[in-house]
Amino acid sequence: MAELATPILNASDRLTFEYGVQVIKAIAKVLAERYAKQQKPPKRKVKNGKYPVTKADFLEKLKGTEEDLHPWATAMNLPGDFLLRRVTDGSSKARRYHRRGIFSQISDSDFTTRQGRHDSIDKHLNYSNREGTAIISLTGSAKDFVEDRIRRQDRRLKPEKGDNRELTYVNTLSLEADGVPVLLAEDEVRYFYDWEKAIVFPAFQKHELARKEGRKYVPNGGCACCPHGLKAMNALKPRVEADAEKEQ
């Protein structure tokens, strides 16, 4: 009876079984190659605008007239415990590579001039922008990454299937030692756009004048943070930048 219970493969079954094994091995090989490719970081060559490697390389990308006016190389003034967080998934452009750290979406940017820095920050902070930047977003707030970053990933046009998110902690003191600038987005927006001077204070003065005169205040051009106010904000940019240069 024991012999009858033993499965017997005939010739056709044996061929099918061997073919299945070959298919599984081929799939495993492809998956291994894809995994190795994902773990392989971009080439970090300094020439031709590639990723910087040493502290001197980072400083070389930052030097210029704008660095003298508004330093980035020594700009780290972060609150808290100097630990920042970044949550990524399969759709994230700035990825962490094993033993190599996080790489930005592109390797090069004009950080030597005011306009170059302005454009990079403008593109990076615009969530509807699809152009790559050499800036990496991090947050010091655990609440922020849970309530904002992860929810934003869930709302992506093509969200990743399954839960493959990765939380990375970054030691900013180590970044500073390596010459990597760590900036506060709020400070940079205030410096490059001067929102309060261009938008808030004039609106406040008009609102207060209308209140004292008993008139209803009607904003001119809408708010700068909404689509209907972008035209007004773009018209203000040259004047704001000119005023900022005069103050310097």
From TrEMBL:
Source domain of life: Eukaryota
Protein name: Uncharacterized protein
Record organism: Hyaloscypha hepaticicola
